[in-house]
Amino acid sequence: MGIQKKYLPLLISVAIAAGVFIGSKLNFHDTNEKIFATNSKKDKLNRLIDYIDYEYVDQVNTDSIVDVTVNGILENLDPHSVYIPVDDYEDNANDMRGNFVGIGISFYPYKDSIAVIRAIEGGPAEKAGIKGGDRILYADGKPLFGSDIFRDSISEFLKGEINSKVMLTVYRPSENKMIEFKLKRKRVPLVSVDAAYKLTDEIGYIKVNRFSETTYAEFREALDELNDEGIETLVLDLRNNPGGYIYAAEKLVDEFLEDDKLMLITRNKSGEENRSYATRKGDFEKGKVYVLINENSASASEIVAGALQDNDKGTIIGRRSFGKGLVQREMALGDGSAVRLTIARYYTPTGRSIQKPYGNGNGDYYRDYENRYKNGELEDPENIQVADSLRFITPGGKVVYGGGGIIPDVFVPKDTSVENETLEYISRSGFMGYFIFEYLEKNRSFFSGMTFNQFADNFEIPESLKEEFYTYSAFENAQIDLRKYSDELGTALKANIAQQLFGTNAFEYFLNDGDAMLNKVMELEYSEAKKD
């Protein structure tokens, strides 16, 4: 595997582009008669497809032509109006619903079989006793092993209708025996709150990875538990959160703002405005809040950060956010596919739009990360370009800017060395996952029965494992020397082991060790304490 430094910003920008999405259910008023009225433009497209279908000399899949046409039309509108093909619709819907119907496992197609990484907490597989390392060999008698297995076809056998049953035949290597499990498929959560724990006795931490239908309920549950444990300050981590449903973001903001505080303004093509206000007593109106953002925090994440910043609530820490101020509504196209079409712009409470320009096309739009990398903005806030015409003042007298993302109150630079960027990528991308799985395969008996606290306090990453990873990753061949980040690599390896043994909360707990933005929070808290 070879990664050259000059290509790394491009790889990161591609990853950002893949992550950014948003859904909305705003009800601006367009009648069906107006939307679906017959006109010559539609007739022309329909007639062209019919000509190709019936007259063209070769057999052509006109469905694929339609898909290309739809994508071409949307790409000429804006970067966030997107087409969802039939084959992708269910996965997209599950992601935004925050659950799917299945047995509840994460797995690898490992060698020639299906290896369970971990049974999802509360899912049917965990309740039945399926464990990490188990191999699923048969589902209802259908073999799921061999050289021809495909991940998508595997999911078809493990997912299904709610309350439908499936008989699994499982081989457990640690006991060298076959076991049969009869499971009833249930709704399995796709969690959007990755982590919630206490940083100190007074400071709580919650990380939200997207805004789905279940996000607010997950957040409230996490916040309630931290409140019960007596926190006075909350760190809300929205880094790398690409967005989601606006209403989920509004409900979350409502926990921090007093009644009747303006949270958000949306405006459609006819100029019709919708203003959202805090409506009730939130659970953290009196508490202190820090919001962590970075260049990958987009859309609903920016709604949260902007609403709090414009109401002088809390402190925004990090780097300038992505800059997406467009609202989409999902619309069915009648054949199982759908389109997420931009229907409005949104504005923060001071009236600023944080949408960055997109007039030069989608390619230029998603190369924005490269531009920030090259102009030094990721390392020095003085390099952030702002326009005086987009200058706004909050009620508390703070100067804020529109025109492209949320600029934090407190800037934390990014280490842009190729080694750190590479380590950051491999820590969170799943690259380490396969390596760690193979390590655990050889050492499951060592970790058997170990609690999280025992793992955290007593387990240290051996230097030999780091050396194995250097060899496995082949970064030496790419002239990337991770050895100068030996401590950080050890933390990343421990976090990935913890993820497969204990879940995402443990994963974030270890990766946050020594995190620059959390260190900044502690520095600010210490300064405040000294003033008091």
TrEMBL record:
| Keywords of the record | Hydrolase, Membrane, Protease, Serine protease, Transmembrane, Transmembrane helix
Recorded hits in CDD domains, A to Z, give:
cpPDZ_CPP-like (cd06782), Peptidase_S41_CPP (cd07560)
A GO term for molecular function? endopeptidase activity
> What InterPro entries does the record tag this protein with?
ClpP/crotonase-like_dom_sf, PDZ, PDZ_sf, Peptidase_S41A, Tail-specific_protease
Regions that span the bilayer: 7-26
Q: Does the keyword Transmembrane helix apply?
A: yes
Q: Where is the PDZ domain?
A: 97-159
Pfam families of this UniProt entry?
Answer: PDZ_2, Peptidase_S41
GO BP, one example? proteolysis
User: In which family does this protein belong, per the annotation?
Assistant: Belongs to the peptidase S41A family.
* Listed name of the protein: Peptidase S41
Q: What is the lineage of its organism?
A: Bacteria, Pseudomonadati, Bacteroidota, Flavobacteriia, Flavobacteriales
